[in-house]
Structure formats: structure tokens, C-alpha cells
Amino acid sequence: MAVSARLQAALEYQISAGAPGAVARLEIPRARLVWAGSAGRLVRGQGQSVRPDDAFRAASVTKSVTAAVAVRLAREQILALDGSLGDQLGSELLERWRSLADLARVTPRQLLAHTSGLPDYFHDQAFAARVRSEPSRAWHPVELVDHIAAHGTSNFRPGEGFGYSDTGYVVLGVLLEQVTGKPLHALYRELVFDPLGMHTTWLEGQEAARKPGIAHHYSGELDMTTLSPTIDWAGGGLATTTPDLTRFVRGLWSGLIVDSDGLEQMTRWTAGASFPPGHAVRYDDYGLGIGRVVVEGVELFGHTGFIGAFAFHAPQQDAVVVGTHNQSEVDRWPLVEALCRELRRAI
């Protein structure tokens, strides 16, 4: 069976497992191999078939982009990774979120590494209930933090634990806007998208769509495209395509966004970072918006997203593996494993 047939079968397997539609892309320059495929439909069980370059929500793959921007600004001495928020974030916001203990002591590095202790608004049941009751509400980023400041408490003191938290990335995004005087989507475009030619990627709810007909994506039976995309932002608000995600991965690891010292910062693995067996997030190590995981004997650096998205670089093979399947309750790893097996065969 040829490479394309094996990988197409892997995509079709995701559909049989309950995914509405799936796309993936594998690039191995050393083997002169570029493959892109798709299966299923844009809307579960109806309408147009998914095409390899259709747009989808990247979810937490966004964290890698946010982290790269933050590290770039730190390298330019616009942001202090190890400086406290008390010295960098506006005093009005520190007062607004005073119920979050020790927030002023938290550093941007801790926000990026999930060691701030901030609880995760995105997986808070009270927040989910508010979203379901007001599905079309446009949330301002500070309101996302307002929710957890009103309904949650810090999980641990800054730097004394590890807890995956979209809240930390929202706080960081607010900080990036304050220190630069620019909206986050403009920073993404200036520092990442335009230099890398990512013309089909955008921050939903903040700028116009760059491609029509975004794939519908689901959490169980809930079609999440019926909810405002503003419920996530710096931690998961990007829409993109597999060609653009490939450009991002290639550009990041080629040093086009951050220099080699910046990449070292992003891959400085966090002591004590761990994800329990069966957790939807699966990394062997975690740094700043970048995780490390070994799949089928292939070491991968990158990130995954809530609704199936993934974007990885395989440094030993200089390969890129990206895709999604648009369903939070379907296991992404059989598809990633199939892509990694082809990578090993090709090298």
C-alpha cells in the first residue's frame, strides 16, 4: 500500500471513530515527501466534503504562537519573562483581579509554563454554563479573567506547582497588548503571520476571516461553531489551515520568529510538569507553549488543541506533522501515530 493510501486510511479511521471531518499534512523535505489529505465533511454528516486546505479552529495550538510572540518581545527587551506582573501589568487590572492570590508575584514565564497557579476558566463548569446561556455573547479578554477571579481561587503559589490553564495565556495576552500598545491579533500578524506568509490564519472574533467555510467542530454533541469564538483568545482563538500551520512550524524551528536562544527558552522543560494517564493533553515534557512527546519512536515538539488539532516538528528528521479532526472526544493519537510511522519509513 502506498503512503497516500495508508494515510488516507488513517484519516478515514478518525471518521469511523466519530470525527466529523479530518485533515492532515506531512512534510519531510529530506525524503522529498509532501502529503496532504482530508476525509469527512465540514458539518457532521451533511453538506460539503472537507478539503485538505479548509480552515479549522486550532484551539490550544494557539499557545505556541502566543509563546513565540512573548519570547520574541522578551528578546527585544519589551517584556521581562522573569519580571513580576506587579511591575508590568496595569495597576487597574491587578486591583480588578485582586481575589487571585499572589497574581502580582506571577511572572510571564510562569504564565507560559502553566506554573502560575491560576485556575483554568475554560474548563470551569460555571463558565461553561454561562457560555451555553449566552452563546452569541462577545467576550472581552479581561472578562474571561473576571469570571475566574469571581468564581475560582489560585491552585498553588506561583512556581510551586503545575496546572494547565488558559487563564494564564489570557493574562499574558492582555500584558502583551499593554507593553506594546497593539492588539494581540496585530502582533500575531506583524511578528508571525505576515513574515511567514500565513495568509489563511486569523484570530477569530478580533479580525475578519481569511478563508470562508470554517470546519464545524464538536465537543460531544455540541457544535462549537454555534458559540462565540471569543470564549478563547490568546490560549486558543486562532483559525488556520494545514498549509499555514506547516509554515508556522517550519518558520519557528528555522529561527525566523525567535532566535536560537529564544527556542532554548521555549524548550527549557518545566520541572514537575506532568499529565496523568488518560488526560486529553499528553506530553512527556512541557516548556513555554511547547510540549515534547515521543510517538512511534519519533520525538515531536509542538502543541495539541482541545478539538483534535495538532502541530509538531520532528527535529531529528526535520519533518512537520499537522492536522485536526474537529471532535474533542475522539483520540487524535492514532492519526499522529500513522503519520509518524510514515515519517520513519521515509527516512
Characterize this entry briefly:
The protein has 347 residues and is α+β, with helices and mostly antiparallel strands. It is 35% helix and 17% strand.
Describe this structure in words.
The chain is globular and about 60 Å long. It has 347 residues and is of the alpha+beta class. The longest helix has 15 residues, at 166-180. It has helices spanning 3-16, 62-75, 91-96, 108-113, 125-133, 141-151, 166-180, 184-196, 242-253, 260-266, 333-346; strands at 21-28, 33-43, 46-49, 56-57, 202-203, 218-219, 222-223, 238-240, 285-286, 291-295, 298-304, 310-314, 319-324. An eight-stranded antiparallel sheet has the order 3-2-1-13-12-11-10-9, sandwiched between helices. It has a three-stranded antiparallel sheet with strand order 4-8-5. Helix 2 (62-75) runs parallel beside helix 7 (166-180). The chain is built from eleven helices and 13 strands.
* Terminal-residue CA separation: 17 Å
The number of helical runs is: 11
The biggest beta sheet is recorded as: 8 strands, antiparallel
Oligomer: single chain
* Overall average residue pLDDT: 96
Task: Give the strand line-up of the largest sheet.
Answer: 3-2-1-13-12-11-10-9
User: Which segments are poorly predicted (pLDDT under 50) over 5 or more consecutive residues?
Assistant: none
Short key terms for the protein model shown above:
globular, eight-stranded antiparallel beta sheet, 13 strands, alpha+beta, three-stranded antiparallel beta sheet, 35% helix, 347 residues, 11 helices, single chain
